Amino acid sequence: MRPRAWIEPDAPLLRRVAGIVVVAALAAVLVPVLGSNYIVTFSFQFVVWVALALSWNVFSGNAGYPSFGHGVFFGVGIYATAAVLEHTDAGFLVAMLVAGLAAGGVALVVGLGVFASPRFKGDLFGLVTLALAFVVTTVVSNVAFLDGGTGVFVREHTRGLWVGGGIRHVFVVGVALAALAALVALATSRTRWGTALRSIRDEEAVAESLGVPTYRYKVLTFAVSGALGGLIGAPQAVYLGYVEVGAVFALNVPLFVIMMTILGGSARWWGPAIGAAAVVVLREVLLGIGSPELSQIVIGVFLVVVIAVLPQGISGAFDRLRQPGRSGVRGASGVSR
Amino acid sequence: MSLLRCTAVTKRFGGLKALDGVDLEVGAGEIVGLVGPNGSGKTTLLSTIAGSLPVSGGRIEFQGRDVTRLSSHRRAHAGIARTFQIPRPLGSFDVLGNVATAAMFGRDRVSRSEAIERAHGVLKRIGLDGHAGSDVTTLTLHEHKFLEIGRALALDPRLILLDEVLGGLNPAEAAAGMELIASLRDDGRSVIYIEHNVRAVTALADRMYVLDRGRNLFDGTPTEVVGDDRVVAAYLGGGARA
Question: Which candidate among A2, A86, A337, B19 keeps its CA 20 to 30 Å from the CA of B241?
Answer without folding.
Answer: B19
